[in-house]
Amino acid sequence: MLALQGDVAEHAAALLSVGAHPVEVRVPDDLAGLDALVLPGGESTTMSRLLESSGLFDAVGERLAEGMPAFGTCAGMILLAADVMDGRADQRSFGAIDVVVRRNGYGRQVDSFEQALPVEGLVGGPLDAVFIRAPVVERVGPGVEVLAEVDGSPVLCRQGPVLVAAFHPELSGDLRLHQLFVGEC
Ligand code: GLN
């Protein structure tokens, strides 16, 4: 998992709980032998800057282009998106999934919320979803599957091996999305 910044420990714990073997990625060499990449929540502008300075941006971009599965949550979703609105001018994203996102589209910290979210194809009832300064998905391309929505706006999307969530599945203790992603890898 990408371990430059953000809620790395929570994702690592969730991944361990579902039987995966999380490896912290901080430099390009850490990508060797990796089957899949989780991009955590945090601050996408900071992560974008650290991806560049560590030399990871191009290395991760290459692996994603080769079809490495990826799961991005909140800031991680922003990093995987095709285009970012209201980002910093120098902020980059991988374009690994054909969605356009607007940073902080649900408002600022005070507007964070938690909600029971019905997810397409997920057994066991609605998912407990925590939204913190979450991005809004403004547009999804034709190849993108929308698995969950809030007020008609997509919050969980998949395109091939890339899964993105506007919320934080690693913070609620509901590990079914981690299970789903690891199961598919
Ligand atoms: N607003 C943050 C960003 O732009 C994302 C928030 C989060 O990951 N909780 O990166």
Topology:
Blueprint: H1 8-17, E1 37-39, H2 44-53, H3 56-65, E2 70-73, H4 75-80, E3 81-85, E4 97-102, E5 113-117, E6 127-131, E7 136-140, E8 145-150, E9 153-159, E10 162-165, H5 176-184
Parallel strand pairs: 1-2, 2-10, 3-4
Antiparallel strand pairs: 4-7, 5-6, 8-9, 9-10
The site of glutamine has 11 residues, from helix 4.
At CATH level 2, the architecture is: 3-Layer(aba) Sandwich
User: Ions, cofactors, ligands: which are bound?
Assistant: glutamine
Rounded mean pLDDT is 95
Q: Report the helical percentage.
A: 10-25%
Round the Cα radius of gyration to an integer and report it.
15 Å
What portion of the residues fall into strands of 2 or more residues? 25-35%
Any idea how many domains? 1
CATH superfamily: Class I glutamine amidotransferase (GATase) domain
CATH topology call? Rossmann fold
Can you count the helices? 5
End-to-end span in angstroms?
A: 14 Å
CATH first level: Alpha Beta
Instruction: Give the quaternary arrangement of the chains.
Output: single chain
Fold and architecture overview:
The chain is an alpha/beta fold. The chain has a single domain (8-184), classed as 3-Layer(aba) Sandwich (Rossmann fold). It is 24% helix and 27% strand. It contains 5 helices and 10 strands, in the order H-E-H-H-E-H-E-E-E-E-E-E-E-E-H. It has helices at residues 8-17, 44-53, 56-65, 75-80, 176-184, and strands at 37-39, 70-73, 81-85, 97-102, 113-117, 127-131, 136-140, 145-150, 153-159, 162-165. The structure holds glutamine (GLN). Glutamine is lined by residues 41-44, 74-75, 78, 103-104, 132-133.
